[in-house]
Amino acid sequence: MIKVKKLLRANSLRWQLVKRFLVILLLLLITMEIFQYFTMKNYLYSSKEQILDARFHNIDTDTFKGINSYQGLLQNSSKLINAVIDENVNAAVIDINGNRIDGRTQVKNFYEIEDNKKSIKKLEKPMPIPGLSKDEYKKLLKTKGTLEGYKLFKDKNGDLQIIGFRKIGNLNSPVGLLQLSMSAAQVEDILYNQKNIFIIASLLILIIGAIVGSKVFKYTLKPLYNMKDNVEHVDAAKLDRYLSTDNGQIEIDSLANAFNNMLDRIDTSFKEEQRIREKMRQFVSDASHELRTPLTSIHGFVEVLLRGAAKNEEQLDMALNSILIESERLTKLVNDLLLLNRLDQKMSKEIQSENIKDVIDEVIPQIKILLGERKIKLELDDNAFVYINKNQIKQVIFNLVQNAVRHTDEKLGEIIISAKSSKNYSNKYVVLKIKDNGTGISEENIEKIFDRFFRSEKHRSRKYGGYGLGLSIVKSIIDAHDGKIEVKSEVGVGTTFYIFLPKEVAER
Length: 508
Fold this sequence. Notes:
The chain has 13 helices and 14 strands. With about 500 residues, the protein is of the alpha+beta class. A hairpin with a 3-residue loop joins β3 (about 110-115) and β4. The chain is rod-shaped, with a radius of gyration of 54 Å. Residues about 115-125 and about 460-465 have low confidence and may be disordered.
């Protein structure tokens, strides 16, 4: 009973398919029955018509044409009727005015009557000769041709009869009609029985179709049910419950493949969310630490001043200078964080075609201040044009050179800046390369250098300075330009940054 209720649920796919199957089956059955009904009806009535035609042929054509007057019609009517009448066929002669001048019947119909509600008797009654209206007879007399075909007519007893007509006399000016009729009750009984058989057979076929269809659709939908069972067990901790993609049904296999791809995307999204949360936690921790350091220093110097150091001019100058330095460091940190935030939001920027050589030439004076005794070498193409925001790319160059200065020897350090068209990536980029001969980056740290606040353990001292935001800013600026940045490094040999800047504006 429970299974039946499940099957009959309006929203059940199995029940929906069964219903549609039964509707299609019913339409096919009805179409077949309509075709069969009218085919049989036409055949049965054609058979009756052939019987009437055979009776008409008992009278030769010359006899029909030889009667050319009303008097002749009266004299020969009995002869005509005797030639065609039998126990199945009634006959009548109609004059030109539509009046029946002679008619005879030998056909008897059986009628069942109830006698005092106790017994049933069958009585024979002669079948009445059907009579059309005078106007209908006159219309037939005026019709051209031999009046092939038949008419169906209900007599006074309510019985259906089939009637045929032939003209008496000249076809164009007949003097009367010979009417033959016979009962169509047998035809109607056959058609009625056929309808009953069809209804019973259709009900049986629909019941069998519902049972068989339900079983077939259950088997067909089995992969879908299995898929549903597997999906119900999928949660955040079980994203590896992949569905089978070999079910023998193209649509189900495609659905399973799409679901598996969705699981992969969800799993990737969860891992990415977890990574972002961890980075955010680390970011908050590092930002808090970096903000606390200058604030602690400022707070300490203020306490010293409050304790009386303000009266000592030398101590006052030292404290104020220290406060100024720490506040500048704090301001730079906040500005860097705000810049990263703007870059993350991908705020619109003004870009235009720039010669990268001119951009580097503009930033060289600032770079030389950082270099000290270190050497710098420039290898620049004269006409390397790129679509960039000039100020942001100048900051990228400055940050990378500043990073190189921090990690190279003050006297033996050497920095190379080059800009040339790339032969890779379909020649779509200009490659800006910044190379140093510094301490290099270990393999375990090279994947982390663009993380915010990342600094290797050996570079966390004040000697190297910075908050670990410089390379993060570089990466964000390059990403905002739809460019690429790559790094190669070897500990003790040096580091090389490759920046790919687009020659054309990227389509968005």
